[in-house]
Amino acid sequence: MEQRLSNTWRMTINEKKFIKTSLLADLRVDGRRPFDYRRLIIKFGSEDGSSEVQLGQTHVMGVVTSQLVQPYRDRPNEGTLSIYTEFSPMADPSFEAGRPGESAVELGRIIDRGLRESMAVDTESLCVVTGKLVWSIRIDIHILDNGGNLVDAANIAALAALSTFRRPECTLGGEDGQELIVHPPEVREPVPLIIHHLPIAVTFGFIGEENIVVIDPTYFEEAVMGGSMTATLNTNGDVCAIQKAGGVGVLPSVIMQCLRLASVKAGDITNIIKNAVKSFNTERSLRKIKRHNSSVIDVSETAQKVDVKFSTNHVNRLKLSEDSRVAQGNGMEVDGQISQKEGTSKRDSSAKSFIGGPSSWDPHSKGIDPDALRASFASRVVLAPTEKLEDSKVDEPTDIEPNQPIVDDNSYISPKEATNTKSKTNEEKTLIDAIKPKHRRRRKASSQH
Amino acid sequence: MEFVSPEGLRLDGRRPMEMRQLRAKIGAVDKAHGSAYFEMGNTKVIAAVYGPREVQNRSQQLNDQALVRCEYTMANFSTGDRRRKPKGDRRSTEISLVIRQTMEACIMTHLMPRSQIDIFVQVLQADGGTRSACINAATLALADAGIPMHDLVTSCSAGYLNSTPLLDLNYVEDSAGGPDVTVGILPKSTKVTLLQMDSKLPMDIFENVMQLATEGCKAVANYIREVLLEKTKERQKFHGV
């Protein structure tokens, strides 16, 4: 509460009056009609599980990370989901650094209630060992710019980040079948979360004595309004949460009307999120092709992966064809290596690739471009902790993951398209790239369990 | 778990549309300008109001209206498992905010510019519906302090378990994971000022549950009026008018 008034910008009486009188004529300061939503743009970072939402002037970032923890004693077979909000003074001078203020707590609680109490995320599937290990999913919400209606934007950011998030796959193995193996993303495709439905928050502002209702209030309208209501609904027409914390009184009939309106808006927003996630997923699978190219170990992992590798190499070759002949030589070399490996048994090949035999790369060859070399080094470093797990993994039957066909589909794309996406992923750096990926480090630590 | 028996009785023997017993007492804290004690079944809360008084922190002073502050705390012994809760955890911060904004809407703050009103609510025993009980107690305390208000805000919760709408949930019903709708109304105009809900509920059922909670609020409002009237008569007698 102390933060509430200390640093706030106060609107002049004239401005307030202007907004109120123009609303009586169904006009809003930004040219919208009372029940129009602002333009919603959803962007994703290069990492899985990060999103950036732009709702008009409002800018919110959501990042999802996971960690293996011990479950709560009263719920031994359920993973946990927690939401943390960060209101940076950069976004609004009235936000103070340090402890989360009242508005930050309220925002977190609204989103938390919408997501958790309505069981939007399947927490039971996050259980690894009952009573011992579960995945703890953490959603961090950063407000980058406050242009009004933070709740809706933050909620969308959380949903978008959750729907693109993938946790590393883990299995139980070892001699006694109790050892936990966390597979790095290079070895096994990380698994997405199970999300039953998307609870969408829609905020209404009530302005003036006449109780004019506006949807998605802006920063200026928030300064004028006497109260607001956030309704969280999904596309099935269920109400997942409502928050109307005091403020002006509203007739129950108006509330029901708002709910019906919110349900329509929730449908629209769900479509936007789903489309954004879909295009992210296709782009992601395209990017994966590139990743396989640089890591040699994947070549020998499964027959299918070899197949993918083949086609990517093909794409790669075509792409590089206008480059120097040296680069082409490189492609040929990898090609030869694949055909050689195809003959050997799987166990053999994985062992060989593991040692990192001469077939993986040739340091003396002049034909290798520095990028590929660096990538192959990087892949080796990342994979180092899995060494001790390797023997148990070899005996396991190779399961073909449901995600695999997607990759297959995309391998048919024309070389031109492939180069396009490659350059796009390189260029398009968002704010999310500036953040150090936390969960990678955690995953390594947790693999020692 | 069965929350409504085939005979139509709830776990504590109430009917689905029945409220818990209400008890209220005005004047629980001697030092405060206004105070009240409110009971809803086994939920017991105490509220104290200080003000209108000078603003303690000058930077917070408002020149056109009174500053309302609220603090909600739960006693360590109020719940079944006795545990020290950190002051200012997320839940109590949110409830403080909700109570403050609800009371702010009914206090005529424009009559007391450059002053401050403090509301303190303390939960002595928690058995579900602490939010509602606190709002009711705060209303009584504000009325006792003689602070001008548009209306008496009252609050009540309702839920939906075993496909039956239930009025005024207790702790067991509240923690069952079903929907919980807390409504606060201004009884004269039946306008809804506070509305909170969690869990999932189809829209048409929600309307029914909200209606039920609103009826509960009206019952609370009648009771609160009675208590206030009684207190006034008592004072009248005391002063020999």
Automatic annotation (TrEMBL), chain A:
* One Pfam family here: RNase_PH_C
Q: Which GO terms describe its biological process?
A: exonucleolytic trimming to generate mature 3'-end of 5.8S rRNA from tricistronic rRNA transcript (SSU-rRNA, 5.8S rRNA, LSU-rRNA); nuclear mRNA surveillance; nuclear polyadenylation-dependent rRNA catabolic process; rRNA catabolic process; TRAMP-dependent tRNA surveillance pathway; U1 snRNA 3'-end processing; U4 snRNA 3'-end processing; U5 snRNA 3'-end processing
PANTHER family according to UniProt: EXOSOME COMPLEX COMPONENT RRP45, EXOSOME COMPLEX EXONUCLEASE RIBOSOMAL RNA PROCESSING PROTEIN
| Chain spans, region Disordered | 328-365, 387-449
Subcellular location per UniProt equals: Cytoplasm; Nucleus
UniProt entry keywords in alphabetical sequence: Cytoplasm, Nucleus, RNA-binding
Q: What is the lineage of its organism?
A: Eukaryota, Viridiplantae, Streptophyta, Embryophyta, Tracheophyta
CDD domains reported for this sequence: RNase_PH_RRP45
Q: Which GO terms describe its molecular function?
A: mRNA 3'-UTR AU-rich region binding
Which InterPro entries did the record assign? ExoRNase_PH_dom1, ExoRNase_PH_dom2, ExoRNase_PH_dom2_sf, Exosome_comp_Rrp42_subfam, PNPase/RNase_PH_dom_sf, Ribosomal_Su5_D2-typ_SF, Rrp45
Q: Which organism is it from?
A: Daucus carota subsp. sativus (Carrot)
Q: Which family does it belong to?
A: Belongs to the RNase PH family.
Question: Could you tell me where the Basic residues compositional bias lies?
Answer: 437-449
* Name listed for the protein in its UniProt record: Protein ECERIFERUM 7
From TrEMBL, chain B:
- What Pfam families does the annotation carry? RNase_PH, RNase_PH_C
- Output the Gene Ontology terms for molecular function: RNA binding
Major location, coarse class? cytoplasm
Matching entries from CDD domains are given as: RNase_PH_RRP41
One GO cellular component term, please give it: nuclear exosome (RNase complex)
The alphabetized list of GO BP terms reads: nuclear mRNA surveillance; poly(A)-dependent snoRNA 3'-end processing; rRNA catabolic process; U4 snRNA 3'-end processing
Keyword check for Cytoplasm: yes
Name the UniProt key words of this record, in alphabetical order: Cytoplasm, Exosome
- What name does UniProt use for this protein? Uncharacterized protein
UniProt source species: Daucus carota subsp. sativus
